[in-house]
Design a protein that fits this description.
Helix content is 37%, strand content 21%. The chain is α/β, with parallel strands linked by helices.
Length: 247
């Protein structure tokens, strides 16, 4: 990701509808995890500017790492932070009860996404969980992907195949950001029709009205996921997985 994007992200990720709404969506599944006697050891793999670390304290004790020093310079110092690669994590096997990774392994800086998933599996306790969120469908690729150096987008079949290679079993998978998909399609169509438009960030906060309505759409999706529903298409792909268990 370009350094300027990290600066924007640090200022908007606590208020922008996409970030607040995606936390609400993740809550739908995280709140249904089995209770633990001790606080969960949580790793946010590719934590960026650290906006999710405070939210993750609802589920345990989080630690974050990122490869980009620009990102870590904006992260809150209240949490343990270190610079590391998701394909070579400096942690012992079975160190964490929950690993989260949001929009990381799709990045062009991650040359082997299966290796990244294997590392996530390695540091997970046998009863631990991995929560992944990734961009969906190559036909949704747009200018924002270029700004954040996105190299790939995923389908459910793609991701399940890679999880199996990494020794992980998907428990729940769904596309998300579905209700706003028509707006994303309109934006991509506009970009392709007007090739002279310079690549730009999607991170600017819209008007308060638009921000509230968009966040509300993701809240509705969260309610459906919490009831056990799923979506067959969407801008992003959410997956909850665990390490393979021998029979």
């Amino acid at each position: 990701m370009e350094a300027s994007e990290y600066e924007i992200l640090a200022h908007v990720e606590h208020h922008h509808w996409w970030y607040t709404g995606m936390r609400t969506i993740a809550d739908a599944w995280l709140r249904q995890l089995p209770t633990t006697a001790q606080p969960r050891r949580i790793l946010d793999a590719g934590c960026g500017t650290g906006g999710n670390l405070t939210w993750l304290t609802h589920y345990g004790s989080p630690l974050g790492f990122d490869f980009a020093s620009h990102a870590l310079s904006h992260a809150p110092s209240a949490f343990p932070l270190l610079r590391a690669s998701i394909t070579n994590m400096p942690f012992a096997d079975a160190s964490f009860d929950l690993v989260t990774s949001f929009e990381v392994i799709y990045h062009r800086g991650v040359h082997d996404d299966v290796l990244a998933l294997k590392e996530c599996a390695r540091v997970l306790a046998p009863t631990g969980h991995l929560l992944l969120r990734l961009p969906a469908f190559n036909w949704l690729r747009g200018h924002h992907d270029d700004r954040v150096h996105g190299a790939r987008r995923y389908t459910t079949a793609d991701l399940h195949h890679k999880l199996a290679q990494a020794g992980l079993t998907p428990l729940r998978t769904s596309y998300v950001n579905t209700l706003l998909l028509p707006l994303a399609l309109w934006q991509r169509f506009r970009e392709r029709q007007h090739t002279d438009i310079a690549p730009e960030s999607d991170l600017q906060i819209p008007s308060p009205f638009v921000n509230t309505v968009a966040h509300g759409a993701l809240q509705l999706e969260s309610s459906w996921l919490r009831m056990g529903g799923r979506f067959p298409v969407g801008v992003s792909l959410l997956c909850l997985a665990r390490p393979h268990r021998s029979t």
